[in-house]
Every structure is written in structure tokens, then in C-alpha cells.
Write a structure and sequence with these properties.
Layout (H helix, E strand, L loop, with lengths): L1 H25 L4 E11 L5 E2 L8 E2 L2 E7 L3 E9 L11 H16 L8 H13 L7 E11 L4 E7 L3 E6 L2 E5 L4 E3 L2 E2 L2 E3 L17 E6 L5 E5 L1 H4 L4 H8 L9 H23 L6 H8 L11 E11 L2 E5 L7 H14 L3 E2 L21 E5 L1
Antiparallel strand pairs: 1-2, 1-15, 3-4, 4-5, 5-6, 6-7, 6-12, 7-13, 8-9, 8-14, 10-11, 14-15, 16-18, 17-18
EC number: 3.1.3.16
Cofactor: Mg(2+); Mn(2+)
GO molecular function, one term: protein serine/threonine phosphatase activity
Amino acid sequence: MNRLVVRTRGLLRNLVNLESSLQPSIRGRPYFAFVTSVSGFDNKHTYYKTQIRPRWTYGDDACFVSITEASCVLGVADGVGGWRSYGVDPSNFSKKFMSACERLARSGRFQPDEPMLLVTEGYHEVLEAKTPLLGSATFCIISLCRSDGRLYTVCLGDSGYLIIRRGGILQRSAHQKHALNTPFQLACLPPNEHGHFHRDGPEQAIQSSVKLEPGDIVVVGTDGLFDNLTDSMILQEVQPLEGVKCTSESDDLLDLCATRLVNCARHAAENPNFVSPFANEARQYGLNIAGMLCSITLIIPFSSLCQSYRLYSSSYFSQSCHCCLHLLDRHACYCSYHPLIILSSLLGSFSVVPCCQQLALVVKQH
């Protein structure tokens, strides 16, 4: 216990020095921030309400959020379910890929306008892993430059995003497919089997950028969302967020909107009479089928403009790791704080950690 107290005092002294070094760069000029809610549905197990889950996975889907002083980077990936026929867990690839991208984003080696470089490096890391990995995934990664509010996006396959401004769609990602239910995908293939599987390179992903305004809403999701809900249905569900300021009220509304969107997508997929976007596409191939019941993952970032920040240290968390991370997520995302990865060996950017008692250091809006 005494050693812990001594270590804590040392960290607090370092915190004062860190605050002094950071303040000149961030005080006195506005910074863009994301207030974020994550929600998902695991079609293989059970429905999870908006909260931190181990490794941020929902069925075959995986996601991450990484927030630094320069950028807010988040992404989703959908493991291609066809690998299950070969005895391969489709979630393995999506989890490894998102984990690699998260770690690289947290490293600070990439500029906010380089999400494609992040994808390329993350994919290369998965391919070169010591443990052989099979599988493939679609993905969507977006990166917000906090200094000027420009959003950079990179997508492959049928995972994508919507940018909503004043009740209308400002920008929408394009879906890439080889055929019905066969999207473009990054892949790790068995040796000498390249002719039997689809594998698309990072260079085939679609890149874009747009200048965000405070109050813009971004919906990032896998095909479980966009295959089952029309754009008008998504707009209707996020409409309560229009004109809302970043307060505790917006926290609750964002949480509610994310949960409702996942529920709507799930119910639409289970409704045999609803003509979903996937059903419309299937009819072009002469197939009469309804929605596509699969794992659903979405992240809703709500853009805001903060004037300045100050550092503070929270009290020790005595809850379980799950509760500790859930509290950290609400601080870092809902309240426009962003974590400083000082105890990097213990405290990852929204990752499962082995220690239940730790000092959380965050930047707070002042």
C-alpha cells in the first residue's frame, strides 16, 4: 500500500509537469471533440446494451475508439461469416485488425489525415503476426483532426458511415461489392488458395474528407445496420440530437439513439414483411428474401467545439474492470474528455486491463 501511495504521488508530480507542457499548445484555441456512443447486437449470443464489452466485439464485428491530443480515431470491422464453413471464427480477423489499428492510432505516429496509412500498417501487422490467422473483414475508419475539424474517412466493403447535418445527409460512404452478399474485404488466406477466396488490398478502399461543423452527427456502422435500415429511418432515429448542446442531456440522448438504432435494425432484419435495403438488392438478383440478420455494430460521434482544457486526476476506481472501463468510456466520450495514456502498460485506450485499481488521468473541458 505504501509503495502504491509513493507511486501515486510521483505520478501526480509528473502530471503537474505534463499539464505545464500541454497547456501552451491547447489553451486559448478551440479544439474539436467527439461525444461518442457505441452500441451493438451479437446475433450469435445475446443483445448488449450500450456499454464497454471485452475487446469491443459484437459477434463477428469489432470496433475501437482512440482519442489523442491531435485526433479522434474510431473504426468498425465486420468479419466475413463465410469463413465459418471452413471452421474459422470470423471474429478473429476483425478483432485482430481493429486491435492493431487502435494500438497504432494511440502510438501518435500517424497524422489525423492519414487513416489509409493506419489501415495499411494495421493490415500488414495482422498478415505478419507470429500466430497464423485466417479470415477477412470489411471496415470503416474515420479520423477527426481536432485542430481544424476536418474528418478523414477510409472504407472497404459494406461497412460505412453517414454524416448528418441539420437533418439531412451531408455525405455517405459508397458500398463496394463483388456480388450480392460478397463485399470487398481485407483477408488473410491459406497458402496457395488465392484463387478460391476474395482478397482486396487497402489501396482499393475509398477515401474521403469533409469539414465538420459543431453539431454534426456521424453514424459509423457495419452492414448489420445499413443492410436493414434505410437512410430515412436512420435520420428519424437521430433527429432528437438535432440542435442539442453537449451536456448531460446529450449524453442520454446519444445513448438512447444508438440503442434504438441497433434495436430497429435487429427488428427490421427479423420482419419477413419489411423490404430492407438488402431485400431490395436481392430482388435485382431474382431472390425474394427479407432482411439480413447478422451482428450489428455502430458508433455515433457527435461533433462539438471545446474552448480549452485542464488536467485533473480522478479518484481510484474500486469497481470491477468492466465498471471501471465503462466509467472511463463515459468520461472520455460522452463528456468530451480524452484520456492521456500515461500508464500505458496498465491503461489502454478503452481496452481491457488486468488491474481493477488504477489512477485515471484525463483532460477535462474547463
